[in-house]
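In the design runs reported in the main text, the only information available to the sequence generator was the tokenized backbone. The following block is the verbatim input for one such run; it is reproduced so that readers can re-run the procedure and compare outputs position by position.
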């Protein structure tokens, strides 16, 4: 065995200097990807029933947890990522990449019987001397970043849940507490270090490979390469503030109309402000609540006061809960964390923020009837559906235009917008297809209603999209064609499209 590994190691090293693996070496052609990787990275390949494998198989949703790779490989440096990618693309072996493992869908960042590259050991975080930039390696979760930045009074535009990965959130867009001031997370990356399909290590910024820089800001990672470092814009930041309000029932019309008004008029005037409305079904009570989160990047000067932009919400009667809290970013993202251990799906529709009240009534009827049907299924009593409204106001759309704009193609003239997503969780695998189908139908029905009421936009937000939604096509024909041509330039043989299993890929 040792001899075989030794031979493989030599063959692989030869092949890395230009000889094609599978065709030149019959021994390697017979072998599998995990063995080939083990030959070049002794110790970093983990097989089932080992501690390292179990540690890597740590995913937020059960569907991803149930997807079992033949091995995990956990590189310790960019150079090792390069070696791994070269071995896999030259050997034509299917693989996927795991950052924080928070995509819910099976195969999102895990692969049945293939190789999952777990970036967990790439966990450096470095603050520049001038405090302008934080360089973050891709295995980090947001809590690792905020735990370092909070004590020194800095922040970056990042996630709102402690365990979500820096990689996936930033590559797909990245809605943050600080988006009103700075745009989404992807708009605040100064420079990427990227390993291409060939194993070549390149940099992407406004000055170097600026086409790749554009593509990585919202285009997702799968078609372009593995990002091994994000240089993020840093800014001074103290504690933040939140007001939480709860109302009984689904379509608290005054809450949603105030939220629309906040999105259209309030948020552009007070860029530190952000918020969301969640309509949540509770199986314990068999009823719905409308839950509002209003956040501000600056704590109001008096602990009693509320930022003026949020005052109208205090006037809605019938609140069953109304509280305010201040704290560090770490405190917020820890408190806001969504627990592991359930089955999940979601999908989203983005519409003009000025939708009429009748549209809201109609989509709430669609949402509730979908839920009634789901809950009546055998074993469906633990299904937990939510409709989550998030703003994309003009100030965010304006901030998205920096550095030549991002790949998502949203312009201030498209907005202001509101994204409605439908995160749904359950526990019984027998209900998987039922929940997926019902959620997809709900999205199609809401899109049809949005067209009828002339509030439809083709944009779909990648990070909350269902696997069947054609995300990049919603970025517009021109942007889609540009993404395809950039993918061809950096991966001329289309190896990533062919081998990197996952979703939200470009057609090539
Ligand atoms: C509880 C929870 C809270 C969330 N909160 C927010 C939020 O506040 N704002 C927001 O915008 N979104 C949010 N999301 C959505 C989240 O941004 C996406 O699910 C995101 O993809 C998760 O990133 P990850 O690294 O954890 O996921 P992973 O599942 O590890 O990866 C996601 C995708 O990125 C690819 N990938 C991973 N690392 C790399 C890399 N280094 N280079 C190239 N490709 C890579 C993977 O192959 C996969 O396709 C949340 C999700 C959850 C579950």
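Verbatim output:
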């Amino acid at each position: 065995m040792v001899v075989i590994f030794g031979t493989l190691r030599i063959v692989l090293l030869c092949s890395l200097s230009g000889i094609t693996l599978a065709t030149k070496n019959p021994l390697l052609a017979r072998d599998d990807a995990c063995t080939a990787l083990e030959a070049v990275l002794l110790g970093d390949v983990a097989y089932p029933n080992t501690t390292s494998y179990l540690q890597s198989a740590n995913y937020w949703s059960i569907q991803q947890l149930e997807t079992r790779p033949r091995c995990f490989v956990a590189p310790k440096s960019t150079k090792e990522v390069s070696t791994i990618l070269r071995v896999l693309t030259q050997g034509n072996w299917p693989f996927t990449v795991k950052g924080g493992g928070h995509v819910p869908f099976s195969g999102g960042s895990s692969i049945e019987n293939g190789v999952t590259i777990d970036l967990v050991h790439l966990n450096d975080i470095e603050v520049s001397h001038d405090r302008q930039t934080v360089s973050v390696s891709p295995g980090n979760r947001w809590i690792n970043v905020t735990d370092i930045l909070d004590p020194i009074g800095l922040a970056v535009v990042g996630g709102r849940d402690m365990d979500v990965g820096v990689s996936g959130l930033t590559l797909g867009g990245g809605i943050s507490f600080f988006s009103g001031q700075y745009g989404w997370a992807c708009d605040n990356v100064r420079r990427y270090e990227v390993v291409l399909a060939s194993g070549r290590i390149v940099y992407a910024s406004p000055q170097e490979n600026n086409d790749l820089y554009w593509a990585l800001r919202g285009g997702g990672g799968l078609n372009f390469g593995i990002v091994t470092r994000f240089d993020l814009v840093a800014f001074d930041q103290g504690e933040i503030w939140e007001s939480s309000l709860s109302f009984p029932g689904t379509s608290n019309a005054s809450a949603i109309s105030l939220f629309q008004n906040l999105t259209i008029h309030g948020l552009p005037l007070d860029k530190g402000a952000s918020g969301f409305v969640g309509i949540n079904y509770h199986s314990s009570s068999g009823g719905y609540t409308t839950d509002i989160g209003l956040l501000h990047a600056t704590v109001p000067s008096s602990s009693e006061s509320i930022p003026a932009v949020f005052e109208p919400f205090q006037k809605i009667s019938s609140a069953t809960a109304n509280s305010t809290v201040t704290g560090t970013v770490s405190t917020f993202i820890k408190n806001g964390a969504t627990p592991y251990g359930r089955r999940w799906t979601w999908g989203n529709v983005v519409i003009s923020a000025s939708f009429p009240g009748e549209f809201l009534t109609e989509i709430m009827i669609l949402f509730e009837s979908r839920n009634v049907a789901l809950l009546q299924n055998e074993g469906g009593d633990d299904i937990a559906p939510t409709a989550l409204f998030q703003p994309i106001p003009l100030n965010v759309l304006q901030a998205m235009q920096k550095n030549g704009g991002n790949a998502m193609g949203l312009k201030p003239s498209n907005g202001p917008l509101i994204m409605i997503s439908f995160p749904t969780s359950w526990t019984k695998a027998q209900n998987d297809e039922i929940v997926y189908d019902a959620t997809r139908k709900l999205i199609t029905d809401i899109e049809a209603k949005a067209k009828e009421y002339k509030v439809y936009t083709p944009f779909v937000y990648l990070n909350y999209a269902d696997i069947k939604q054609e995300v990049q096509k919603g970025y517009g024909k021109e942007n889609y064609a540009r993404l395809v041509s950039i993918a061809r330039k950096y991966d001329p043989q289309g190896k990533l499209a062919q081998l990197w299993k996952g979703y939200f890929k470009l057609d090539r």
